[in-house]
Design goal:
Blueprint: H1 14-19, H2 26-33, E1 36-38, E2 45-48, H3 51-59, H4 74-81, H5 95-108, H6 110-113, H7 117-133, H8 138-155, H9 165-180, H10 183-191, H11 194-199, H12 208-223, H13 228-233, H14 236-249, H15 251-265, H16 280-292, E3 302-303, E4 308-310, E5 313-315, E6 320-323, H17 325-329, H18 372-389
Helix pairs in contact: 7-8, 7-18, 8-14, 9-12, 14-15, 14-16, 14-18
Bound molecules: protoporphyrin IX containing FE.
């Protein structure tokens, strides 16, 4: 578990911490450190590895832990530099955020999300047709599913089945931004003030982030009119890519799921949302997909409004708190053999689904993901429909030998 260790007298040396990083998968380094605090010159960052501590701080003390990092800190700098100041995800905990949040809730709360089900099913059925027509481009098809749903719901805009320019621009900006938001990316903004960073020319040695920022800013001009939820919806696509990977690597799980669908739904129609309760194994596959390779391994950072004390430690005003969702989903005490894809872990010994819906995947407290109901329904509908209609198998090369699966991408949008 992690305890915020804020009251120690001597901050840990920044470089020491940063050099020890697994920069491709920093959440794993944080998890290994177990108790973490990074002091990049100005602002402490607390990485919480424990689900219990995250609940104690971000849920139970939500009124104090619901801000986002303040002006002159990494995230606002990133938002401004990268042209993403418009998104409510970065808003400070105040009236502007409250208004946005209320509007989001009206559109996406649990009962409102039910009204999108017909669109979700229709788009999932289009996905099946796309997958059959272009099996070699299955990831592009998955990417389009989420985009197609949110664009239809919001604008009645029907993007091209593949390579839609707007969708591609959003995917690219999200990818750049998520990388920039990691704490180790924070160091550059902590060492140099924002006005200095802003004026570093893109050709300057080591200024790769600046080139990325420029690219992101340019792309963002194309997408800035598109609501933020559209980008967030695209997170459902990586989730589906993780599902495809799991089905390739665990064919027994795939067969078991297909048997369940055949016995409940039969073979002469596609499943719909009424079939959800009697398909517990599909439910377990959905949960395991969200858990196995969380697509937002470090969530979105919170910030502390006022000084606080927690279990003997002092947490300063403005400190950044990051929930290490990766560490929580790979907590061996809760999920033994956590690297394995095992839907069975979500069943009680008497064969019933347990109560663990891996809710922490969607964050904590008042900043919890507002799109979780719609995301959950989209991913469920896609998983069950793909399993009902298709077999997921490794591609074969010219000699008819299985092409090995590249698992590198599977750690999600941010890698
Ligand atoms: C599998 C898909 C998704 C995952 C795993 C996910 C995860 C997350 C996480 C971890 C956060 C940060 C929560 C926190 O600060 O504690 C978040 C915030 C947010 N999500 Fe999602 N999300 C997903 C899909 C969606 C969708 C489909 C939408 C919109 C329709 C959406 C809209 C948002 C918004 C607006 C926020 C910011 C909330 C705030 O700052 O008040 N997300 N999401």
């Amino acid at each position: 578990g992690c305890k915020p260790r804020i009251d120690q007298q001597v901050p840990l040396p920044v470089l020491g911490n940063v050099l020890g990083f697994n920069s491709k998968e920093p959440w794993i380094t944080y998890m290994e450190w177990a108790k973490v605090i990074i002091y990049p010159f100005t602002q402490p960052i607390i990485v919480v590895n424990s689900e219990k501590v995250a609940n104690d701080l971000l849920e139970r003390r939500a009124s104090n832990y619901s801000d986002r990092p303040q002006f002159n800190t990494t995230h606002l700098c990133v938002a401004l530099l990268f042209g993403w100041g418009f998104t409510s995800i970065f808003f400070n905990y105040g009236n502007r955020w409250r208004l946005h949040r209320r509007l989001f809730q009206q559109a996406f709360r649990a009962d409102a999300a039910l009204t999108y089900r017909p669109v979700q099913l229709r788009k999932v059925h289009q996905l099946l047709a796309n997958l059959l027509e272009t099996p070699g481009e299955s990831f592009d098809c998955l990417q389009m599913l989420s985009a197609a749903i949110i664009m239809e719901v919001t604008y009645r805009y029907d993007p091209a089945p593949r390579h839609d320019p707007l969708v591609m621009a959003v995917e690219r900006t999200a990818d750049i931004l998520i990388k920039a938001l990691r704490p180790e990316g924070a160091v550059v903004f902590s060492v140099f003030p924002f006005h200095v960073v802003r004026h570093i020319p893109p050709w300057f040695p080591g200024a790769d982030f600046k080139r990325k920022a420029n690219e992101c800013q340019k792309l963002t001009v194309d997408v800035v009119e598109t609501p933020f939820q559209y980008t967030k919806q695209s997170i459902s696509s990586p989730t589906l890519k993780v599902f495809i990977l799991a089905m390739l690597l665990y064919p027994d799980v795939q067969r078991k799921a297909q048997l369940e669908i055949d016995s409940v739904v039969g073979r002469d129609r596609l499943p719909d949302f009424n079939d959800r309760p009697p398909l517990p194994y599909i439910e377990a596959i959905l949960r395991e997909t969200l858990r196995w390779h969380a697509v937002g391994p470090l969530g979105v950072p919170h910030a502390i409004t006022n000084v606080d004390h927690f279990e003997g430690y002092f947490t300063p005003k403005g400190a950044i708190v990051m929930a290490n969702i990766w560490a929580m989903s790979h907590n061996e005490d809760k999920y033994s053999e956590s690297a394995e894809f095992k839907p069975e872990r979500f069943f009680t010994p008497d064969g019933k689904l347990n109560n663990d819906n891996v809710g922490f995947i969607f964050g904590f407290g008042r900043r919890i993901c507002v799109g979780r109901h719609i995301a959950d329904a989209t991913v469920w509908a896609a998983i069950v429909s793909i399993l009902a209609a298709l077999n997921i198998e490794k591609a074969k090369d010219e000699q008819g030998i299985d092409v090995e699966v590249n698992t590198q991408w599977s750690t999600g949008v941010g890698t």
